[in-house]
Specification:
Largest sheet: 8 strands, mixed
Shape: globular
Helix content: 25-40%
Radius of gyration: 20 Å
Number of helices: 10
Number of strands: 23
Distance between the termini: 15 Å
Strand content: 25-35%
Length: about 375
């Protein structure tokens, strides 16, 4: 299959016009190609979005531990230009988490691909638990991590921990050899956070939310992460979790290589307002709300998707290249899948999204197949 006259952003995220040939699910050639193909002039081609932190959408949740739920998520995400995702767990019992990651590891959905598994908890802080269930919060052990990792068939790509809640140095050094370790749902001070970074943590879970804030005498997790060029930072860009003005300031610090847009969405994403379930707790989506909440008003999760967040960022004043990288190649790098995903380059997966002039999705291809 050949797409002719494509205007696209190449692997350097520079605009280019060329033909693309797709073979066996991969981008086989880029350039002026002989042969007939579909004329795609008039559209903008971008890499597929990659959501590395998502609990659910379309009425389904990763914690259902059911193949059909993952299939529902996969199909719903593909409609929004998400071509790869990491189903994300909640803070639950050891047996439940093992069942969840086992189900995810066995699933090969027909829509958006599963790029790996994200463990959000259970090794977090009760002080910054957010919508996580405090009954299952516990200290991290290498033994439990190994059991979950093995049950996942080594598909864990990301794990969130609160380093102040246990002797974390040995754990971080060990786990970071197998997946990306992220600091989040944490009450750590900046010294503890920096020690975690020096031990091998390289990521921060939904920056600003459920962590110690930036202060002018104690920088907290937020300040330590922004100041450390080794660290990639997740951002929920629905306009409610983080104000647009704060997002603009944050992107000025992070530049175009360290920001990772995530949805952190729950099963109510894409559905009508109402009552839903998240990690065994009731959450509520009110009419006109930007996010879901617990009954006490605590922010629970988002109801957005990466395509909407991408358009939000453009509307908020973030430049196109920076917004696009934050939704594509940066998340791929965060989970060490950037050799296959995240940009338009010969040899990479043919995960492609065609947009119109208003950035609306016209067609989505996953491994070269129309979604």
């Amino acid at each position: 299959m050949i797409f002719k006259n494509c205007t696209f952003y190449n692997d350097k995220f520079e605009k280019q016009i060329a033909d693309l040939e797709i073979q066996n699910g991969l981008i086989a050639n880029i350039g002026k190609l002989n042969g007939k193909g579909r004329d795609m002039s008039g559209f903008l081609l971008i890499p597929g979005f990659i959501d590395i932190h998502i609990h659910g959408c379309g009425g389904a949740d990763a914690c259902d531990a059911k193949i059909e739920s993952l299939e529902t998520m996969s199909q719903e995400l593909s409609h929004h230009g998400v071509t790869s995702f990491c189903p994300t767990t909640m803070t639950l019992s050891r047996n439940d988490i093992c069942s969840i990651v086992s189900a995810i590891s066995d699933c090969k959905p027909k829509g958006a691909k599963i790029a790996g598994i994200n463990l959000e908890g259970p090794f977090i802080s009760k002080d910054k638990k957010g919508a996580q269930n405090s009954n299952f919060i516990r200290r991290a052990t290498i033994g439990e991590f190994d059991e979950i990792y093995n049950k996942s068939k080594e598909k864990i790509k990301l794990i969130t921990i609160a380093p102040e809640t246990f002797g974390s140095r040995e754990f971080i050094e060990y786990a970071s050899q197998k997946c990306t370790v992220s600091i989040g749902h944490s009450n750590a001070d900046s010294d503890t956070c920096r020690a975690a970074f020096d031990s091998g943590a390289r990521h921060v879970t939904h920056l600003y939310n459920a962590m110690t804030a930036l202060g002018h005498r104690e920088e907290g997790i937020v300040g330590a992460a922004l100041d450390d060029e080794r660290i990639m930072c997740e951002l929920i860009c629905d306009g409610g979790h983080i104000l647009p003005s704060v997002l603009r300031s944050t992107f000025k610090i992070l530049g175009d290589d360290r920001a990772v847009v995530i949805s952190d969405s729950m099963r109510g994403a894409g559905l009508e307002p109402g009552q839903y379930e998240l990690g065994g707790q009731s959450v509520f989506v009110k009419e006109g709300a930007l996010f879901a909440t617990l009954s006490n008003g605590t922010i629970a999760a988002s109801i957005t998707n990466l395509h909407q967040e991408f358009k939000n960022l453009i509307a908020f004043g973030i430049d196109f290249k920076t917004a696009l990288k934050a939704c594509t190649i940066n998340p791929a790098k965060a989970i060490k899948e950037d050799s296959k995903l995240g940009s338009i380059k010969k040899g990479k997966c043919a995960d492609l999204v065609f947009l119109d002039d208003d950035l609306n999705i016209k067609e989505v291809y996953i491994d070269g197949i129309l979604a």
